[in-house]
Every structure is written in C-alpha cells, then in structure tokens.
Amino acid sequence: MTTTADRLEVRISAQDKQTIARAAELQGEGVSAFARSVLVREAERVLEAEKTVVLSAKESRRFLQALDRPFTPNAKLRAALARGDKLGL
C-alpha cells in the first residue's frame, strides 16, 4: 500500500471545483482521490509523449537517408576531438 505524505495545493475556481466534484462522484471517488488519479494519469501521458518522436513520411525518409550517409565530422567537431585527444579523453 502506498502512503501519501506530500501535499499539493491548487487554487481553482468554484465552478471548476464543482465540475471536479461531480466527476469524482460519478466515479465513486472523493475529490482528492479523483484529482490525484487524474493528475498522475495526465503526468504519465505527458512523460510518455516525450519519449516518442513522430515524423512525417518526408521527414522519415530524410532521417533514414541521413543514417545511410557516411559520417564526416565538420571542422568544429574535428577541433573538439583534437582537444579531447590532447587532454587524454
């Protein structure tokens, strides 16, 4: 069983609170439990969306073509690699 110790305070309008209370009641939950479950679910959705990159067909082709091309470092990267070699990195 998870214990809850931290608090999160949110200021909302009376109308928003009534809406949330009605939704919580329909779900058979108290307002706090309902709000917590909705907040956590939405936070997990946002975090999961950050893990996924969606490319159009054109972008996907360009990306795959770039992966197929041989890698050639530019001047700045060659200079940085040379500095790293001097430092023993």
From TrEMBL:
Keywords per UniProt: Toxin-antitoxin system
Gene3D superfamilies registered for this protein in UniProt: Single helix bin
One GO-annotated biological process of the protein: regulation of DNA-templated transcription
Family membership noted in the UniProt record: Belongs to the TacA antitoxin family.
Protein name per Swiss-Prot or TrEMBL: Uncharacterized protein (DUF1778 family)
